[in-house]
Amino acid sequence: MSSIAPIGAFDSGMGGLTVVKELMQQLPNEQIIYYGDTARVPYGDKSKETILTYARQIMNFLVDQGVKAIIVACNTVSAVALEDLKNEFDIPVIGVVKPGAKAAAESTHTGRIGVIATRATINSGIYRDFLCRTNPEIEVFQQACPLFVPLVEEGWIDNEITDMIIHRYLDDLVKNNIDSLVLGCTHYPLLRDRIQLAVGDGITLVNPAFETSREFKYVLEENGLLNENEAAAPHRFYVSDGAARFADFAARILNGYTLTPESVTIHAFD
Amino acid sequence: MSSIAPIGAFDSGMGGLTVVKELMQQLPNEQIIYYGDTARVPYGDKSKETILTYARQIMNFLVDQGVKAIIVACNTVSAVALEDLKNEFDIPVIGVVKPGAKAAAESTHTGRIGVIATRATINSGIYRDFLCRTNPEIEVFQQACPLFVPLVEEGWIDNEITDMIIHRYLDDLVKNNIDSLVLGCTHYPLLRDRIQLAVGDGITLVNPAFETSREFKYVLEENGLLNENEAAAPHRFYVSDGAARFADFAARILNGYTLTPESVTIHAFD
Questions:
Q1: Domain boundaries, chain A
Q2: Tens digit of pLDDT for each residue in B59-118?
């Protein structure tokens, strides 16, 4: 595999673009091929079997595009299907959960960490597992927040109702005296400012996207796959539905990067 | 086709059970085969092409189960794909939109009607078309309410936040002096009491499920397919994901009808 081959990234929909943003900053020479499964979003309330089936289809598609490595830019897939996917594919594959847990373990002083995510990610218990493996003294407090994804997709960010929903999900969590809070879903960084306001400045918000992109860089280096010399070829974006809406959403996330509806390709699996 | 064959009903997920409830009451001799596409819910923000692909797969599946007629218990599918589906299948197929529009046209005194539904249904303009065809004097005021489905699926029904979201979507709509409001998504009847409280008693809420079941009965009669003599065989429920959650949800909707996780069968198309 050549180091000038593209890297693949995928998510259940548009949230993974918060990871793409970090990749663009930290790995400016890499060409990114992104797939968002917007026809079947959200994954967060689905079963492991269904999530694995969908992720496998997408990874095969990315491999067909010639990618040299894949970043699973979706917490739900990383939580419930990553080990299976790593076993099935022979290129480097990394998820967002382990780097996110590592960053949280490094940021806490009190050892009391909160995790918010989709129902599937929370039920998997994977953040708790990784955190406790890093340090058995750590106590983890979890909360599923199923309405955050539809709120973000509806564009209700700076909004009194959104603040109330944030309080409703997080007020009890905060009472556990956590000092770090993992944003365990790629949509949640878009609510970052409102969440910070709700939980107060004493709690550090951990965005796994940053740490994951850093770790992805190490993985590429280790495997001799980092593209150090060439300028990146143009990124490519695929979705299973709704190219125009995806381009709109991307414009809000990828500050300064222009994405037109025409540059987003529809590719469905049905 | 024999009149003792079952009838088919389907929805993007669990909302169509509000239609099943009406069918059970109005057509007690009929065996129902229900399909809920819970692995790919929601449809409301998806494109026509994707919705048509999914609906076609489900209808083929129901036909394979030997159904004599199909009720499209989903406003989004009825709005964007019904004509195509009717042309492709040679058994009677009816949707929820036309009967719903008819009921609204009959209920209004002022000729000012509100319609709330998913984004796909609203964008199709189909309620407005049917209403204006019934009576060109009717004025239609529409509002997409994308957060209602996730709120219902999260179980936040009697809840201050839900009331605020209802007000946010409906306050401007009500200012148009409507006297009837169509609940143009099969999930919405579950918010009926809270919506009535928000809009006031002067507005009649129209639930297309009732009218659609009545029309479905006529269609069966016309085609000599009404099962008048035999007791119904046991109903069958299929979903593409999450049998236990579906059974839970069904228990809340189908008062008195017992549905266990074991009696719900997973059937996915991927």
A1: 7-95+210-266, 98-208
A2: 999 999 999 999 999 999 999 999 999 999 999 999 999 999 999 999 999 999 999 999
Residue whose C-alpha is closest to residue A38's, from B74, B42, B146, B53 = B42
Contact flag B164-A165 (C-beta cutoff 8 Å): no
What integer pLDDT is reported at residue A230 of this predicted model?
Answer: 74
- Per-residue pLDDT band at B258 (split at 50, 70, 90): confident
Token pair in block for residue B89: 């299948």
Pairwise CA distance, residues B36 & B8, whole Å:
11
Mutate to test the interface with A, among B76, B119, B161, B163 (most CBs of A within 10 A): B161
Q: Determine phi and psi for A187, rounding to 5 degrees.
A: -75, -30
Q: Say whether pLDDT at B150 is over 80.
A: yes
The domains spanning A7-95+210-266 and A98-208 adopt the same CATH topology: yes
The answer regarding whether domain B98-208 maps to CATH 3.40.50.1860 reads yes
Q: Which of A161, A164, A121, A159 is nearest to A143 (CA)?
A: A121
Burial classification of residue A22, based on how many CB atoms lie within 10 Å of its CB (0-12 exposed, 13-18 middle, 19 or more buried) = buried
- Cβ separation of B241 and A46 shorter than 8 Å? yes
ipTM: 0.85
